[in-house]
Amino acid sequence: MPLGERAGDKSESRYCGVETEFNDDMPHLLSFNIHGGFDFLVAPLIDPSYRPSLMEQDSSGSGALPFAGSDLVLSPSQWSSHVVGKISSWIDLDSEDETLRKDSEIALKQEIAWASHLSLQACLLPTPKGSSCANYAKCVNQILQNLNSMQLWLRIPLEKSDDETRNPDHMGEGHTDTWELWNSFRLICEHHSQLSVALDVQSTLPSPTSLGRWFGEPVRTAIIDTNSFLTNAQHYPCLSRSHQRLTTAFFSHSIQVVISGKPVHNPPMASLESSASSADNHTEGGWRHPLKSYLDYLAYLYQKMDPLPEQERFELGYRDYLQSPLQPLMDNLEAQTYETFEKDTAKYIQYQRAVSKALLDRVPDDKASTVITVLMVVGAGRGPLVRASLQAAEETGRRLKVYAVEKNPNAVVTLHSLVKLEGWEKLVTIVSNDMRQWDAPEEADILVSELLGSFGDNELSPECLDGAQRFLKEDGISIPSSYTSFIQPVTASKLYNDIKSHKDLVHFETSYVVKLHRIARLAPTQTVFTFIHPEHSAKNSNQRYKKIRFDIPPDTGSAMVHGFAGYFDATLYKDVHLGIEPSTATPNMFSWFPIFFPLRTPVCVTPNTPLEVHFWRCCGSTKVWYEWCVTSPSASPMHNSNGRSHWVGL
Ligand SMILES: C[S@@+](CC[C@H](N)C(=O)[O-])C[C@H]1O[C@@H](n2cnc3c(N)ncnc32)[C@H](O)[C@@H]1O
Prior knowledge:
The protein is α/β, with parallel strands linked by helices. It is found in: Cytoplasm.
């Protein structure tokens, strides 16, 4: 399907559409453009001169006169696969002129009803004419209530300018940032999941920070006018560097590109192209669509993109897909979950480095052959940290005695066979028990664990390690020695709509593990909670509270916060760390996707007012949970009070 997602498929050029003028010979229009290399048309369905109020009443009394051609001119699959309906651009539902307003409402409803009848996948709605769009949005909202699966793409010029440089043709008074226009419209339509954006790319672009906001919005298509192209030395169209970057970002976010406008470049093939005014010419040798050089340039940009690394390709199916975090304490993990962990060599390399450094610090060279270090892997799973620890001992020439403690009896079965297979019987003792209950026969020099969730402490590592600390020597080392969680506000309309589709409170008060892709990060991350191990101070409970203030960078403009992306960073030992916080993330590590804390009602933020958010880590006798709320720029309700919707079992 031309409008389907093809992210990651580098085998051919991306699907690309063309915006056309009205043509009552639709079969001709379609074949001309499809043969010209385009995948779909954005075409008016109705003659632009049509006005409901100008239609003569049918004197025979047989009802409405036809306002469009027959649906039979194309096959149903041609309509739905190759045509996006362009709603008449004269439509102005917020006009002062009542006749125009009424005509607009009738025409909009007729055109969308006609497009639904044709089973089109999408319609392009014209840009709101003034700064007020209430009546237009109200009418679209009514339509959305009873619409089939068709998407409505609201055409929004990509513009954010200072007052002096504002383009008055595009926006009504008072609007310097077209994101605001989109935001008013979608708020009136209550974030309807079938309302999305068609960005009209202009020859000048807003700042990268301001552009970034759109990648968390439901942008389905980007319309690039031929006037936005520059001319290269051979007279071919090309894009400025910033336009190239933007177009590449559209491709990697599965945003379809549409070329619009008349050809304004004259590459050497132009003489051939100009003969293409008739559909009869389209199969003749050498014929080129008049916009082919623009299409070729976009295909070239697409092909030039770096191929996705193998891991990213593997993760494509997880992009923006909400998953419940693991409950490794309450539940027993399955074999395939362990298998996924074990493939993540980057993680085990870091652990091996940390254990090596700890062994070298603990045992001086002259005692290497005599001192035996007691190392306990608590939460050993199927053994990869046991292996990493033994490799560290070998690498450093230190002697180890290892205890592998694991509470999942199924993983213990595999541990036994691993120890036998590797001939580690003399080195490794397997303990099938919960580390919080086990009576260790001796104390450990080093306690190695990996009980971390995407938000660090969210899989209850603090509670487990508090239990295990009993059998760590007074001067013993915990690997990790600390971990910290981080959050940042994000625009994430796709995640918000997915959560909203459940129509309940529980889903809005749950944190999710998710491979974030179609999001905009609105401010740098800030730290939330830190845990240190071993924790010798009895007064330190694992409850936490943090108030965090984010300042939205000045050139961003206003933006919508749908929730908070969360990450962690762990110090394994001294300078050896492991984590997914974007600015310091461990390269090539894939065991953790970020976490997402949603907001029940998205909050609009501006650079002038700080965004203030509060996070609590609450502990009960049987469960641990988070609560969160926003207090600036406006107050949100408390999320997940008393862990009523989401918690982690102890
Ligand atoms: C995230 S997995 C890591 C497994 C393994 N170390 C690895 O890297 O593949 C955590 C493991 O700790 C175990 N675990 C969690 N809490 C535990 C506890 N209180 N006592 C013993 N094992 C525990 C889980 O069953 C699971 O096997």
